[in-house]
């Protein structure tokens, strides 16, 4: 089995998105993907086989005031417009919907890392924790501390997965999915 980890890194996640697009172009298939922060969005588009989707988010949508910035802060009290990005843009009725059914049909395992704000420990969400038009795990994983208020999911506040497990290699290796 072969796995991939995408650690995101905010707008630097565009690099990971490009690598995953290259993998799609060259029929590189992973049995397991784990995403942290922006990496969780990248992995989701890869698993949905939506080549170029993240590129559009990084190049076109990010300049919109709802995506991140003062307008988002005034409207949501958070710098990053998670509801806009993973709602208005990504929901089935959105401008560039995430093909959730393709993710569900993809046999690859998918983990999303977020940080429990109460404990400071990582939480590893998977496909069963998300549904069409309910990408709370990805929102939690991308929620930047200090500039964003905690993202509430099932009554628990979460922040960016990079706080507690920035490079989830140990978790990845425990899943016995890496081939050397």
- Overall pLDDT confidence: 91
Q: What is the strand tally? A: 6
Percent of residues in helices: 25-40%
Q: Helix count?
A: 8
Show unreliable segments: 176-180
Sum up the overall morphology in one term.
Answer: globular
Structural class of the secondary elements?
Answer: alpha/beta
The biggest sheet, with number of strands, parallel, antiparallel or mixed sense and barrel status, is: 6 strands, mixed
Query: What is the H-and-E element order?
Result: EHEHHHHHEEHEEH
Strand content: 15-25%
Radius of gyration: 15 Å
State the end-to-end distance. 10 Å
Keywords:
8 helices; globular
Quick take:
The chain has 180 residues and is α/β, with parallel strands linked by helices. It is built from eight helices and six strands, in the order βαβαααααββαββα. Strands 1, 2, 3, 4, 5 and 6 form a six-stranded mixed beta sheet that branches.
Describe this structure in words.
This protein is of the alpha/beta class and about 180 residues long. The chain is about 35% helix and about 15% strand. Strands 1, 2, 3, 4, 5 and 6 form a 6-stranded mixed β-sheet that branches. Strand 1 (about 5), helix 1 and strand 2 form a beta-alpha-beta unit. Helix 1 (about 15-25) runs parallel beside helix 2 (about 40-45). The longest helix has 13 residues, at about 15-25. It starts with a strand and ends in a 6-residue tail after the last helix.
């Amino acid at each position: 089995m072969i796995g991939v980890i995408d650690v995101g890194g905010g707008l630097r996640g565009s690099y990971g998105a490009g690598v995953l697009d290259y993998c799609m172009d060259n029929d590189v298939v992973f049995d397991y993907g784990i995403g942290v922060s922006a990496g969780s969005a990248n992995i989701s588009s890869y698993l949905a086989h939506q080549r170029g989707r993240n590129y559009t988010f990084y190049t076109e949508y990010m300049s919109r005031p709802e995506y991140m910035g003062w307008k988002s802060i005034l409207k949501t009290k958070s710098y990053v417009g998670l509801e806009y990005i993973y709602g208005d843009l990504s929901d089935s009725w959105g401008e560039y919907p995430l093909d959730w059914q393709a993710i569900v049909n993809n046999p690859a395992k998918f983990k999303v890392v977020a940080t429990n704000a109460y404990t400071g420990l990582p939480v590893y969400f998977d496909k069963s924790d998300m549904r069409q038009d309910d990408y709370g795990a990805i929102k939690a994983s991308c929620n930047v501390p200090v500039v964003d208020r905690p993202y509430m999911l099932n009554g628990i506040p979460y922040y960016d997965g990079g706080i507690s497990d920035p490079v989830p290699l140990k978790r990845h290796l425990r899943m016995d999915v890496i081939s050397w």
